[in-house]
């Protein structure tokens, strides 16, 4: 077990700004004499540029912690994981695993096991051998060399029935570990099968088993569940969490799925465009998102955002409604008098209400009844004042959650009130959260 610490980690990839150049080179090479420099040579002569994919990453994963990296596609999650694994080299900063600085260490010296979404099992080996393969190598590198008497006995008994054959100490250790892991993951019955004889979920369990069998200091998992169907994903999700708790192995888990992040992580690091926006336990991310980006990313359906005008001491106005905020906002908001702020409201923090200036008059565009919950997509019924401010809302549609027993239909008009103690505010330009305490 070990902690993983990233200090000011930076990663850039080389790129050539040859998007315009390439076609020209390609074209000229068609016309060029045979002995002209090749396209490849010409391309490498272009000035190299770099694109920075991760910037100023500081993250400390505690010993035994389950840390989830979450963020939209392309934000740099996999790259960060690959940097920890040593599959990519960092461009700046430090990576620590335990008390070792691993910047220059190759992957196999880092004592880390990685699980990918595509399982990466050896197709020609049985489940048993897939589990045993890495182990044999690990034990060999542990210098548990086979004594020569062992070797002799193995050779002499090779032709005998299986029960009578002699096995080496190392092979017995491997066998013990394989069977333990198979029991833990409930794949004992599958040990003699080939990967092609397994379902997706079973393959994923074998891939997990392979990582566990090596008993590494750290597990790195890159979207390991994304090839599974919804039901199996939920089951395997729970199983991974349970296993991780049992083993207590420090884990960094990458996903773009916020449900996975919220249900699995001790803490979650939310990433966007190569930077970490916030690191916090799941509920804290939900209750106290540090930025508008985090607020929108965590929670399903996402938080609604409305531009409102703030008037000290405690009132906000929107073309469609106005309301007075609880006292606790007075202090923090006094510097924003007469400014536009972004009001954030989660779908679950609206309530069906009565006509009043502090309530929102909306029309139902869509109803989604999901048994336990009913979600509405609603739009404002235009009431006339300051329509320009409404136009600055990215979308004029709000997502609202109402009790499932409430009968509503498309086209119906409703009044909604806000849970005043649940409001969020963000600075208009920077998107930074303003907290009332
Ligand atoms: N070898 C590479 N060379 C150049 N650019 C790269 C390389 N690997 C990744 N990138 C770029 O780095 C950015 C981050 O990629 P990364 O795979 O880490 O994102 P991600 O958050 O894991 O996305 P996804 O969820 O889609 O897998 C992307 O813009 C990607 O195009």
Automatic annotation (TrEMBL):
Matches recorded under InterPro entries: AAA+_ATPase, ABC_transporter-like_ATP-bd, ABC_transporter-like_CS, ABC_transpr_MalK-like, ABC_transpr_MalK/UgpC-like, Mo/tungstate-bd_C_term_dom, NA-bd_OB-fold, OB_MalK-like
Single GO term (MF): ATP binding
Record domain ABC transporter: where: 34-298
PROSITE patterns (alphabetical): ABC_TRANSPORTER_1, ABC_TRANSPORTER_2
GO CC terms: ATP-binding cassette (ABC) transporter complex, substrate-binding subunit-containing
GO biological process terms on file: carbohydrate transport
Gene3D superfamilies: 2.40.50.100, Nucleic acid-binding proteins, P-loop containing nucleotide triphosphate hydrolases
SUPFAM superfamilies: MOP-like (SSF50331), P-loop containing nucleoside triphosphate hydrolases (SSF52540)
Alphabetic keyword roster: ATP-binding, Nucleotide-binding, Transport
Matching SMART domains: AAA (SM00382)
PANTHER family named among the record's database cross-references: MALTODEXTRIN IMPORT ATP-BINDING PROTEIN MSMX, OSMOPROTECTIVE COMPOUNDS UPTAKE ATP-BINDING PROTEIN GGTA
Protein name listed in UniProt: Sugar ABC transporter ATP-binding protein
Organism: Chroogloeocystis siderophila 5.2 s.c.1
